[in-house]
Amino acid sequence: MAKELARKIEEANSKARAQNSELNSVRKQGRSAKSLESDRQYEEVIRELEDVKKEVSRLKLDLASALEANAKAEKEIEASRSKAMVYSQSVEELKEEIEEANEEHVLVEIARIEADRERREIEAKREAEADQFAKNLEAARKRIEDLKREINRTKELESKLAVTKSDVEVLQNEMELVRAMERKDKENGSQKGDLEGGSMLRSAQAELDAAKKELGAIKEEGFQFMASMDQIRKEMLRISKETERLKKLGKKADSHVQYLNSKLLKAKSKLESAAAAEERTKGIVSNLSSALQQLKNETEGAKQEKETIDNETQNIRSENEKADMEISSIEERLQAAVKELEAAKASELVALKKLKIATEKAMKARASAVLKSSTLTISKSEYDYLSKRAAAAQAVADKKVAASRAWIEALKAGEKEMLMRAEHLEKQMREARAMEKQKLLEAERTSIDKRKMEEQVHETNWTEENEEEGEEGSTLPVGAAVAPRKSLRNENGNRGGPRRSKMRRVSASSAARIAQSPSFTIKKKRKVMPNLVKFLRDRRNEK
Fold first, then answer.
1. Keyword Coiled coil, does the record have it (predicted)?
2. Position 262 confidence tier, pLDDT thresholds 50, 70, 90
3. What is the DSSP string of 421-466?
4. Are 51 and 327 contacting, i.e. CB atoms less than 8 angstroms apart?
């Protein structure tokens, strides 16, 4: 449409130039009042045509700027959509990581609850065993006291036995003496001695029998005491073995409690690290959600701006159509003026022929008159015609000078307006570049924070896996019930590794895409706008 408009303007200019040249030739030969009026109309048409040219050029510039702004808005919308997609992908990945952290948090909480339950069970078992051990120890102490009392009683019996043995020995010695005395008495044959010796012998025999009975009872009690001493020794050995066993169980329970305490502390540290990681991820998710909301708002603003630009483009197109209609009407008027000029030209040719004939006649008459006198006389009508022609030529020259000055002023105003627009566009470009650089810095900062968080989580998982492997190699077999949770945690850790690496790759590629798209736009703007400003300045210098 702009090319067609330019072609029509060029045709009108060529026609105007042709008419202008014809009018100039007519003016050189001579001009009537009707030709002056047609010249004035032609100048008005030319002036209107120049105004239309200015308006068309202004509309062209407005249309080009609107199209450029529309393309820029579309590019910004595409860039914001790509950024929104990248941010939404990163938000989804962070949500998945948060879900994994929540699963690990649940597993750690379950492990902590089970460890606490096992610790309570072990403490209850240990307390029951301690009570049983205390009861057994008290019973053993009582039995030891009873045995000590029996030992003291046996010692008393042993002392009595020793006294009885000494008495028996004394009695045996006395019996020997009595038997010796009996033998002496038998030798002496004394009856009195026999009677006294017999009574003494009977009493000694009775005492000896009583002592033998008491000695047998003491021996029997000694045998019973020895048997009870053997039982006491066996019981003491059993109590010592039970004490050793209880001590070993106590040490084992203490080591298991220490293992569970260390495991509980590790679970608490894991829980704290998971909570800290969750807080960090929540902060990052909130930042990303705010950035996503900001991008959505910017996208909505860009859409509204695009709608306004579309409306302005539609208005410019309608104005352009109106200008086309006005140009067509001006062309019709110009064609009518050309027809009138052709008719005037034909009438002028006829008048010129008549005038030429009359002039030749007058010139011949004047030549003959000049030969007769040195002065030339002309008619009043000729004098008035020549003076009016000079005044009309002066007025036309003044009008042309004023029109050229107005055209120069309009060109200067248009150039000034275009320079102001170029400066405004440069300012907008600088602001856009600053905003894009700030967005790039924010995206890089977000990716760096995200990478740091992933490295911290990866290092935490790596240290936890190493610690768990060290615990599996060095702990007692009592903690075998915790092994399935370790394997499950290891499986979760192994499943999380490739996903994190994939997320890092995606974030790196998205950051590269974000970094590449504005650079191309900036380069394109830098290439186009300075050339436009340079062109306008060159034109201004040429003027």
1. yes
2. confident
3. HHHHHHHHHHHHHHHHHHHHHHHHHHHHHHHHHHHHHHHHHHHHHH
4. no
How far is residue 484's CA from residue 491's CA, in Å, rounded to a whole number?
10
20-29 own/partner pairs: CB under 8 Å, 24+ apart: 20/46, 22/341, 22/345, 23/341, 26/345, 26/348, 27/393, 29/352
Q: Which pLDDT tens digit goes with each residue over 356-367?
A: 787 777 767 766
Residue 225 clears pLDDT 80, i.e. is over it: no
pLDDT, tens digit, for every residue of 308-326?
877 877 877 777 677 678 7
* Other CB atoms within 10 A of residue 97 CB: 23
Nearest to 442 by CA among 453, 450, 430: 450
The half-sphere exposure of 58 on its side-chain side, counting CA atoms within 13 A, is 16
CB 61 within 8 A of CB 485: no
> What 3-state DSSP class applies to 521?
helix
Q: What value does the mean pLDDT take over residues 507-536? A: 43
CB-based contacts of 440, cutoff 8 Å, min separation 6: 514, 515, 518
Chain centroid to CA 224: how far? 90
